[in-house]
Design brief:
By secondary structure, the chain is mostly helical. It has 6 helices and no strands.
Length: about 110
């Protein structure tokens, strides 16, 4: 009985982990050779921070505001911040520039 209970909880978690997020799918599609979709959240966050440092001030502030609004009251950690930043890049029209920059950046 205990094994059945464990399997009931483990199977949905395994299935969920196997399906890529929209962000991961976009990273994989744009730069499949680098496997950016497999970066850990900390490394991706650093990559995004370096990109944001080169944005004009209004766009940089828009990203910061979006992250604060979306993640300020939840314990989403880096995943929440990365997802919010990624969606804001899309809304601001700079997602393609980020993906190009990320793909061209040397591996760390």
């Amino acid at each position: 009985m205990r094994l059945a209970a464990v399997l009931l909880f483990a199977l949905p978690l395994a299935a969920h982990a196997a399906s890529p997020t929209p962000r991961q799918a976009e990273l994989a599609r744009h730069c499949s050779a680098r496997h950016l979709e497999m970066m850990d959240e900390g490394d991706l966050g650093q990559l995004m921070q370096r990109f944001e440092a080169n944005l004009p001030e209004p766009q940089r502030r828009a990203v910061q505001d979006a992250v604060g609004r979306r993640c300020g009251l939840v314990e989403g950690g880096l995943t929440c911040a990365n997802d919010a930043g990624f969606e804001t890049y899309r809304r601001l029209g700079v997602l393609k520039a980020f993906l190009t920059t990320a793909c061209a950046e040397p591996a760390r």
